[in-house]
From TrEMBL:
Signal peptide range: none
Gene Ontology biological process terms from the UniProt entry: heme biosynthetic process
The protein, known as: Ferrochelatase
Catalytic activity entry: heme b + 2 H(+) = protoporphyrin IX + Fe(2+)
Source organism of the structure: Xylaria arbuscula
Membrane topology category: Peripheral membrane protein
Length: 420
């Protein structure tokens, strides 16, 4: 299809003010899929090279997790008090605080069992530092690239990250460019959307109105089918399949597992289920459909209906049908966390009665192929001169959240914000 969109749809933020990009045509595919060719030649590092437009702040957005058991209560409190994740109305803070205190002992035990905390901070910091090293080489014109992490529910929180930006010479009248890079490959309003609403909130509080000297923000908001992501998943799956005897290998069932969503969020029109399915299909294409597969959903919380089928039930039902060779693939998160190390390893596999034939594919963590993919995504974004994907300007059909409207107007630009 040769549908072409004028770049008048797209905009670039310069010193906080939205200005139209220079006229050229961009296919929406270019904006969303970031499919730059992979064989980037690597020139030597050129820190502060003459003509560099850097420094550039690379800000990883994610939910975060408690690094110690003592941090669990605060983590859960922030999570249950987030109206973008769990809308509880006017009593949000009160009810959120009540639910989180009651839940804390159970969740503390789970974090204790996986080594005393979540590894998300360790992996996020490592991935970002390594990505920035690559960017300094392949994008000397925007070097040096400085790594920052902004978590939604654990330290370092968005406010802390913003103050660090100020300390390092960004904003405060000095401007500078910052890229908000979501670490959720697939976009959900309850994950990336919530992080962007939070970033927008602190941007308003700490920098006031957009204007000369404020930070120039742009966003990498989704990357469900980036070839580097797809290849890393596929190669990890191949490694796990190789552990089965050859005669059983192609009959092992691949069970992709993603964090579920409440049906209220799905029915509001959240993009996440479709984007997770896109990742699964791209990985299967890359594997040449070598095995039968299904997508299932894990980590439901509370009594309301969630998107299914549930991962644990699916494993039990396949085993009951005689299918015991099952490969679990966490497909919606880029590092290990409580849902891989506790829920999949200890509950789903541990309680399956078949720990020798039900296996889990390793998480992306520090995989160099994955770090290359992050650098490729960032490089494509830095070169593209766009603020975010064209898709990001559109609110969900059922969205009633004014924070979404405001943050979309800010990040996508007023002219690209649709249905706000
Ligand atoms: C793509 C990933 C995730 C989506 C989508 C998501 C939605 C979502 N989550 C909750 C409630 C909880 N999630 C919790 C932990 C948690 N969630 C994700 C990822 C997604 N959540 C991760 C990676 C983690 C673990 C973090 C870590 O270990 O570091 C928790 C806390 C644990 C618990 O109490 O069970 C809750 C609660 C909702 C309601 C939701 C969608 C609306
Ligand atoms: S809930 Fe999706 S845009 Fe607000
Ligand atoms: Fe969650």
């Amino acid at each position: 299809m040769a549908a072409r969109h004028s770049v008048a749809h797209l905009s670039r933020r310069v010193s906080g003010a939205v200005v139209p990009s220079p006229l050229r045509t961009v296919r929406p595919k270019d904006v969303i899929a970031h499919t730059r060719a992979f064989a980037t030649p690597v020139p030597p590092v050129t820190q502060n090279a003459a003509g560099s437009k850097g420094p550039t702040a690379m800000v990883f957005l994610n939910m975060g997790g408690p690094s110690t058991v003592d941090e669990v209560e605060d983590f859960l409190k922030r999570l249950f008090q987030d109206g973008d994740l769990i809308p509880l109305g006017r009593l949000q803070n009160y009810i959120g605080s009540f639910i989180s205190s009651r839940r804390t002992p159970k969740i503390q035990k789970q974090y204790a069992e996986i080594g005393g905390g979540s590894p998300i901070r360790k992996w996020s910091e490592y991935q970002n530092v390594e990505m920035c090293k690559i960017l300094d080489r392949i994008s000397p014109e925007t070097a040096p690239h400085k790594p920052y992490v902004a978590f939604r529910y654990a330290n370092p929180l968005t406010e802390e990250m913003y103050n660090k930006l100020f300390e390092d010479g960004f904003g405060n009248g000095k401007g500078g460019r910052a890229i908000a890079f979501t670490q959720y490959p697939q976009y959900s309003c309850s994950t990336t959307g919530s992080s962007l609403n939070e970033l927008w909130k602190w941007r308003q509080r700490l920098e006031g109105k957009a204007g000369p000297g404020t930070i120039d923000w742009s966003v990498i908001d989704r990357w469900p089918v980036h070839p580097g992501l797809v290849n890393t998943f596929a190669s990890n799956i191949e490694k796990t399949l190789a552990e089965y005897p050859e005669e059983r290998r192609s009959k092992a069932v691949l069970l992709f597992s993603a964090h579920s969503l409440p049906m209220t969020v799905v029915n509001r029109g959240d993009p996440y289920p479709a984007e997770v399915a896109a990742t699964v299909y791209a990985v299967m294409q890359r594997l040449n459909f070598s095995n039968p597969y299904r997508l299932c959903w894990q980590s439901q919380v509370g009594p309301q209906p969630w998107l299914g089928p549930q991962t644990q039930t699916s494993v039990e039902e396949y085993i009951a049908k005689g299918q015991k060779d099952l490969v679990l693939i966490p497909i919606a998160f880029t590092s290990d966390h409580i849902e891989t190390l506790f829920e999949l390893d200890k509950e789903v596999i541990g309680e399956s009665g078949h720990t020798d034939t039900v296996k889990r594919v390793e998480s992306l963590n520090g995989n160099p192929m994955f770090i290359d993919a992050l650098a490729d995504l960032a490089k494509t974004h830095l070169d593209s001169n766009i603020t975010c994907s064209y898709q990001m300007g559109l609110r969900c059909p059922g969205c009633k959240n004014e924070r979404c409207a405001e943050s979309k107007k800010f990040f996508a630009g007023v002219q690209n914000s649709l249905a706000v």
